[in-house]
Amino acid sequence: MNIVIADSHVDLMGSVTFSQKQLIRRWDQELGKKWGQEVQDNLRDFMQIKASLDPETFPNYAQNESLLAEFIADKQVCYSRRIADEAKNALLISVIEYEQAVRRKAELELLINGREAVAEVPEERDPDTQEITQEYVAPVEAVEPLAQTIEQDGETVDNPAYLDVVAELAECQAVIDEASPEVLTQVSQRQ
Question: Which secondary-structure segment (H or E) carries 156?
Fold first, then answer.
């Protein structure tokens, strides 16, 4: 039976991220698919006592030597792919943070600036060709902008809700501004 080791466990087009422990466990399981724990233990034992064994008299020495070399090669493959997955996972985390910041920024700007209502516009077609001459536009309710100041005890003061929204908007903008070229490239590929 030929067991193939996976190329990666991180999907840059997805939204599932992993902790380092989870990635280590996944790659250990990947190695365990091909090399059961008992076989791994036996090969480690063989590796530790190999120098003291006589290849001429020890049964299956050559076979164990070959298996050990194959096991070490597979372990190196799993290790290098895990390291690559850790980098991909870090990139995915940054991409998701960027996408969330962009969405949240739009929501916050809507709260700050508001928007006018949009009336429903029905789809229109040319009677002769049936080509669409006017796309359907769904109605959108107006959103009143958040007041910058409020009246409190007869005084005009800064609106705490407005200040909170502005502060959160600055945090979102910082995430967007700090995005690396790799993050921006990956975001564009996900759209």
Answer: strand 155-158
Instruction: Report the pLDDT averaged over residues 151-162.
Output: 94
Sole residue written with tokens 């007041």: 147
Task: Give pTM, 2 decimals.
Answer: 0.78
Does residue 92 belong to any structural domain of this protein?
yes
Distance separating alpha carbons of residues 111 and 97, to the nearest angstrom: 21
Task: Report the pLDDT averaged over residues 156-160.
Answer: 95
Backbone angles phi, psi at 39, to 5 degrees: -65, -45
Question: CA-to-CA distance for 142 and 66, rounded, in angstroms?
Answer: 73
Cα→Cα distances 170→102, 112, 157, Å: 12, 13, 21
Q: What residue numbers bound the domain in which 183 lies?
A: 20-190
Half-sphere exposure at residue 147, Cβ-oriented, CA atoms within 13 angstroms: 8
Q: How many domains does the chain have?
A: 1
Q: Degrees (nearest 5) of the Cα angle 14, 15, 18?
A: 110
CA pair distance 160, 132, nearest whole angstrom:
48
